[in-house]
Amino acid sequence: MSVKYIKSKKYDDVYSYTTSSGQLLYCFRFKYYRNGKRKELQRSGFNSEKSAYKEMLLRKFELESSDFSKLDSDKISFSKAAELYYQNKLSYWSENTRKRNRGTLDNHLLPILGHIKLNDITATLVQNSVINVKLKELSPKTVQNVYETLSAILNYAVRNDLLNKNRLSHNIFIPSDDKQVIFYDQKTLKRILDKSEELNITYELIIKTLAYSGMRISELLGLKWTDINFNEHTISILRTRKNIDTEKKTKTKNSIRTIYVDPMITELLKEYYLYVYDKAFEKDIKIGINGYVFLGINTLQPISKTVITNMLNTVGKELKIKIHPHAFRHTHATLLLNAGETYHYIAERLGNTPRMIEETYGHHVNPGKRKVANAFSDIMKNEVSEEVSEVIQFKAKTS
Fold first, then answer.
1. Which residues on adjacent β-strands are paired with residue 219?
2. May I ask which residue range the UniProt record assigns to the signal sequence (predicted)?
């Protein structure tokens, strides 16, 4: 369904629109000329007309004050483009981000590419002279950050007619880090779940849903009320979400699934819906049945991954446990498999393949067969042994 834009009566070039989830947002768009070519600049996702208008004025000022027409695009060097990019971003970055990007330029990019003309920067040059060299001294994750900064500079050059095309896209190989994945034993998980009951109902429900369903955090963020069947105690996982209004398909076709959850989760969801409804009524905000389930406590906007991660970090510090959203998924699979579930049933529940489950957890489990959701609930309801339980770390592929 196409988005309908409504022109603001107060500000020129500012428009309002409604997202697929029913949220009212604002954007701006205006035309300008660069080197004799007509272009259009558009930005969306603003919460108010005024914020969209202020950002638009800043963008117009930057365009008017940046005289790129005096630059010869055939001769401009990477160092010149990098400095233009850096100066353009200064007003948007925090002090820490400025220092980090300045360090990336001065320590990793400018010494290698600074003297090279923009038009001479190819994927082969970057792979051999930047990526492969830096992998010998930096972690793959850090090299990925260096590459992303480089690509952002080239994209900036393209937008400002300093470069015809960014030739790096999809042509650079950076190996991924071997990730040390955390999962919890029964006693540790119970400590986390008990602690969640001291939190706001939003955070309690997030932790318990992750633990009792094994879903990915992006899948949890993408849940809508229409995905919940309170009578059957099921949750349908149909989409993912990362940003406030960025819906995507699930990771794989196998990830589209409907899972049974403990009735305790659906009862808590009912309680949470009433809580959200009351909050929305107080703030005169409309909450629809087609909206996302998990919302920010104060804003009642779709909650972000960052907010959840920060909350888990805070809980982890209090319990002296490293808590990561994906650890609940690994824990869910490991405890179920050790309780006797088969690779096939766990794969269906987690939205993976049996082979992936076996390769990731096979050396930790003794497979069998029982009803999946009830087995997990039984695990958490049983008495925990008195032995000291530790967080177990193991090398595994992130499923």
1. none
2. none
Q: Are strands 24-34 and 37-46 parallel, antiparallel or unpaired?
A: antiparallel
Q: Give the chain's domain count.
A: 3
- Nearest Cα neighbor of 312 from 182, 144, 142 is 182
200 and 147 within one domain: no
Q: Are residues 209 and 324 in the same domain?
A: yes
303 and 199, same domain (yes or no):
yes
pLDDT in tens, the chain (399 residues): 578 899 998 888 899 999 888 889 999 998 877 666 777 888 888 999 988 888 888 777 666 655 555 555 567 889 988 988 888 788 777 888 889 999 999 999 999 999 999 889 988 899 889 988 888 888 888 888 899 899 889 988 887 778 888 888 656 777 665 455 577 889 999 999 999 999 999 999 999 999 999 999 999 999 999 999 999 999 999 999 876 667 788 878 889 999 999 999 999 999 999 999 888 888 887 777 778 999 988 888 899 888 999 999 999 999 998 898 989 999 998 888 888 888 888 999 999 888 887 777 665 554 443 455 556 666 776 654 443 333 333 334 444
Cα first-last separation, the chain? 33
Q: Tell me the whole-structure pTM to 2 decimals.
A: 0.52
Residue 295 lies in a domain: yes
